[in-house]
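Follow-up to my earlier ticket, as requested here are the two runs.
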Amino acid sequence: MKLNYVAMPVGEAERLRQGGPDAYGDQPERRISDGDGVPCRHCLRNVDEGQPYLVLAYRPFSSVQAYAETGPIFMHAENCAIHDGDALPPILASSKSYLLRGYGGDERIVYGTGGAVDAEYLEQRAMELLARPDVAFVHVRSGKYNCYQCRIEAA
């Protein structure tokens, strides 16, 4: 199975960069990166030291419902190219472990799919989850802070 790593859509990133409100209706906060642990959810790379970035509340779901978690994320304040989806994103090679959760086509958590995974087994676990008929996509979250990283789908 081939995996597709899905980043924040271009239109959403542009809307936020132009001052659009985040998931809570607030303006994204602008900061300068110290180069340590500032993963952009659009290009799926870290924001380099000295570069501006945005901090905002993000809900990576198509609608508001009980399982549509919202939380803080970072993204480049200036334009960056969206991750191509094919290769393991650089932001998923910077921690020792991640949280993975499978979701059905209705965007609800599929119980029994969530758990911490060592980084070296992330792709293997994502493939196992996506092989299930009840799992449409997988969310990857930070193992330390539970922040959304990206979505994985079967390509």
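Run two:
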Amino acid sequence: MKQAQHFFISGRVQGVGFRWATCNRAIDLQLTGWVRNLSDGRVEVWAEGEALSLAHLAEWLKHGPSTARVEGLSESMVEAKNYKDFREIA
């Protein structure tokens, strides 16, 4: 059954390839949704898919790519919107 999670990641997460790496990781995990930078310096992620894949993404988001320094991660379960793919939003 498809589930959805909404994440906010803080720290040094912009300008370090975080969105690109998150997009690739989500696609590898067969998730749909999106990732975008926020004006306050955080990254926002909406991901939908199987519970195990979402758990793997959540674990990965705790550290992100090697160029990032994650200082905070918040997540909440949300209602799926049935996105067809995973993409970066500029």
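The only thing I checked on run two: The beta strands are 3-12, 32-37, 43-49, 69-78, 86-89. Let me know what else you need.
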